[in-house]
Design brief:
386 residues, alpha+beta, two-stranded antiparallel ribbon, 47% helix, 11% strand
């Protein structure tokens, strides 16, 4: 534990400003052993620690806002074990080269890039017969190398600073047990649940993305959507099985695309509204195209006069009224007659992917949300003899 000190702000070429805004803020330092061998591993570790701290409420802002900062110690050694006389030991790990410390890295990307830059610098010095000095270095975004800040003052780096030690703090076993009992579910356990539980059945990639987005808000939103849908389909086990994956796709992809240029807000499209849209879609009362239209309409609405999916469906007459087989066939024949060049590409040249284009044309010509793509494709393929 320590207290935050002043932050140095460089203004090239010769000016250094001191920012005292965070002086006295209590800090807890988490130290790892020198057992990390790749820059990406270090970056992922920092990201993982940040996710855990956010999940338990220990930090409320990201690295860029000062909620977490990283210092990295870097040393290189030859693969053949010959350290050219420079062999160091840290916390029981032996055979290491002289380390340098890079201070105050403010993003996960900065951690990875700074380590790469410092490794390259040390390797170049050693290959040219030089010696690595124990020192503190800095790194700025976009730099190709680190920059010397100051030398180390012996084994204990900062004893030349006239700061008092913090008095011993005794943490009772009862408090430790209370914290264990009240901790929220952490990311690893949630990942296992999201992937392996039939309630969710997400891919590992989707589960990871959901856990990392929006400081946990996106996960909470997704869980509420799933809860509402499972409650709505309590008497339909087949639909309940589909809820987790379908909700995941829509929360991450369709809704995510709408929020690409702004911060996520769970009230923009309330979970109950997305649940209603997906319930209509899963029960085949609307098509996927109509579902996307409903989502976009609600997202773009004036928040002071919001509509429900049900009211929009009713006002625009969007409920699916399936066409008969004859109506599908008539629509398809008319299109194939008009687009003979596309028919030739499919039948004679084997460009089967253009069937999807024809299906899209049928959906565009039919009543809004009235053409089911699966049925339309089946009719087109039958008429083309595919």
């Amino acid at each position: 534990m320590e207290q935050d000190t002043a932050k140095t702000v460089q203004q090239p070429p010769h000016t250094h400003l001191l920012d005292f805004n965070r002086v006295g803020v209590p800090l807890i330092e988490i130290i790892t052993l020198p057992q990390i061998h790749h820059p990406l591993t270090a970056a992922v570790l920092v990201k993982k620690i940040q996710a855990v701290l956010r999940r338990v409420g220990a930090v409320v802002t990201g690295m860029e806002m000062g909620g977490l900062r990283a210092d990295v110690n870097v040393s290189v050694r030859r693969r053949d074990g010959n350290q050219d006389g420079s062999i160091s030991e840290y916390y029981g790990v032996t055979g290491l080269g002289q380390r340098t410390e890079i201070k105050n890295l403010a993003s996960v990307k900065a951690v990875e890039d700074a380590i790469i830059a410092e490794c390259d610098r040390q390797i170049e010095i050693l290959e040219n017969g030089g010696v690595i000095e124990g020192e503190t270095r800095g790194w700025t975004l976009g730099s190709k190398t680190t920059k010397r800040l100051r030398g180390k003052e012996g084994e204990v780096d900062y004893r030349y600073m006239p700061d008092p030690d913090i008095a011993p703090i005794i943490i009772g076993k009862d408090l430790v047990q209370h914290l264990k009992d009240t901790l929220p579910i952490l990311g690893d356990e949630w990942h296992q649940r999201l992937v392996h539980s039939p309630e969710f059945n997400l891919t590992p990639k989707d589960a990871s993305t959901l856990l990392l987005l929006d400081d946990g808000e996106r996960l909470e939103y997704y869980l509420e959507v799933v809860t509402i849908l499972r409650r709505a389909f309590h008497d339909n086990p087949e639909l309940q099985k589909k809820v987790g994956k379908v909700a995941g796709n829509w929360v991450l992809m369709e809704l995510g695309a709408l929020f690409k240029d702004e911060s996520f807000s769970p009230t923009r499209v309330p979970p109950a509204h997305l649940s209603s849209i997906l319930a209509h879609l899963l029960t085949k009362q609307i098509t996927g195209r109509t579902a996307k239209l409903l989502l976009t309409t609600i997202f773009d609405e004036d928040m002071d006069s919001p509509s429900t999916p049900e009211s929009i469906i009713q006002a625009r007459d969007l409920l699916l009224r399936p066409l008969s087989e004859g109506e599908y066939e008539e629509l398809a024949k008319q299109l194939l007659e008009e687009r003979k060049e596309v028919v030739r590409d499919i039948v004679e040249k084997g460009q089967v992917k253009k069937v999807k284009w024809l299906v899209g044309q049928m959906m565009g010509r039919g009543r809004e949300g009235g053409v089911e793509p699966e049925r339309a494709e089946g009719v087109v393929r039958r008429l083309l003899g595919l």
